[in-house]
Design goal:
Bound molecules: (3S,4R)-3-hydroxy-2-oxopiperidin-4-yl beta-D-xylopyranoside
Number of strands: 9
Enzyme class: hydrolase
Protein name: Beta-xylanase
Order of helices and strands: HHEHEHHEHEHHEHEEHEHEH
Shape: globular
CATH topology: TIM Barrel
Largest sheet: 8 strands, parallel, barrel
CATH superfamily: Glycosidases
Number of domains: 1
InterPro entries: GH, GH10, GH10_AS, GH10_dom
Distance between the termini: 53 Å
Catalytic activity: Endohydrolysis of (1->4)-beta-D-xylosidic linkages in xylans
Family: Belongs to the glycosyl hydrolase 10 (cellulase F) family.
């Protein structure tokens, strides 16, 4: 019998070639969640609209294992009238997550923004009393947390209660004006009563700026000392090419961790513009350009931040990005309307940016 060595040899060579290629390249379906499997879940903020777009759902399922509803669980959207809840969009996100075995972080239960019109007013238009407002807060938290009990593992219970002004402690919101600081502890108690298993967070921005960090620490310590059921703190992580520094970030994580709280980054993006809360109008010299310098600096920032997260892994229980890709970011319209930003790890065509490769290289 004549063996055709020629063909055998060719097939063998082909086999070796294919094996070599797969060894060098990560599997096509490997994503952030897989690289970070030993560390913590990697999440992303989503809308129901994104979950209807096949390009976006493919990217979500490849890269992430946790979801946060970007807007649909906030009090205004989910509870538009006192006796009416709008569950549809929130349910759709939770159903999608359940169907694909993704975790869900609930966002959020008590915030000064995106509140429904009826919340702070009596039927006659006058301001509600503290007693009435706390009862409304209780009923809201009880209904929302119980509906998703066992499906949502963590809640941002109170969002952004610290004032921007360094000379003030708590933000002078309607919550604070009507209830004083009690609404904070009460919100945690209501959430804990509704779902004792849920991991309860205080969540805020600019948490790494030393002065604001100290005020947040003071609030968290007060809550811990009073045995309020708080488990963790969320650093929103709306950062930029110029902040935070490595030291600020490490100090913040370790300081909050020292209170026995877990830490997550809950809304990560790295703006190509500096932080400016109050400007709305675009300047004539501003373009939408994503310059090579911006890209380089952003890549270095992402690389640094994830190195710190890995180093501080004993405190960290999750990292969530605020939006999926540069195709759409809330920073395209905030704070400056109509100025394109490029803050995420995937570009406008859903392709990984250089920063992505640095984040998964360790
Ligand atoms: C933002 C959403 O991304 C926008 O779509 C919405 O218009 C405003 O809120 N801190 C938070 C998030 O806790 O809820 C905010 O989300 C971004 C800042």
């Amino acid at each position: 019998m004549k063996v055709n060595f020629h063909h055998f040899g060719l097939a063998g060579l082909l086999l070796i070639g294919v094996a070599g290629l797969t060894a060098q390249r990560p599997a096509a379906d490997k994503g952030l969640k897989d690289y970070y499997q030993q560390y913590f879940p990697i999440g992303v903020a989503v809308s129901t609209q994104a979950l209807k777009n096949p390009a976006e759902t493919a990217l979500i399922l490849q890269q992430f294992n946790s979801l946060t509803p970007e807007n649909d669980m906030k009090m205004g959207p989910i509870h538009p009238e006192e006796n009416r809840y709008n569950w549809g969009p929130a349910d759709a996100i939770v159903d999608f997550a359940q169907g694909h075995k993704l975790r869900v972080r609930g966002h959020n239960l008590c915030w000064h923004e995106q509140t429904p019109k009826w919340l702070f007013k009596n039927a006659d238009g006058s301001q509600v009393s503290k007693e009435v407002l706390l009862k409304r807060l209780h009923d809201h938290i009880d209904a929302v947390v119980k509906r998703y009990k066992g499906k949502i593992y963590a809640w941002d219970v109170v969002n952004e209660a610290i004032a921007d002004n360094p000379n003030e402690f708590l933000r002078n919101s309607d919550w604070y004006k009507i209830c004083g600081e009690d609404f904070i502890a009460e919100a945690f108690r209501y959430a804990h009563a509704a779902d004792p298993q849920a991991v309860l967070f205080y969540n805020d921005y600019n948490t790494e700026r030393p002065e604001k960090m100290e005020r947040i620490y003071k609030l968290l310590k007060k809550l811990k000392d009073a045995h309020v059921p708080i488990d963790a703190v969320g650093l929103q992580g709306h950062w930029s090419l110029v902040e935070p520094t490595e030291q600020e970030l490490r100090t913040t994580i370790e300081r909050f961790g020292s209170l026995g709280l877990k830490v997550q980054v809950t809304e990560l993006d790295v703006s190509v513009y500096p932080w400016e809360k109050d400007r709305r109008a675009r300047r004539p010299d501003e373009s939408d350009a994503y310059t090579p310098e911006m890209q380089q600096k952003q890549t270095a920032q992402y690389k640094l931040f994830f190195k710190v997260f890995r180093d501080e892994a004993k405190y960290m229980t999750g990292i969530t990005f605020w939006n999926i890709s540069d195709h759409y970011s809330w920073l395209d319209t905030y704070p400056v309307a109509g100025r394109k930003n490029h803050p995420l790890l995937f570009d406008e065509n859903f392709k990984p940016k250089p920063a992505y490769y640095e984040v998964v290289k360790f």
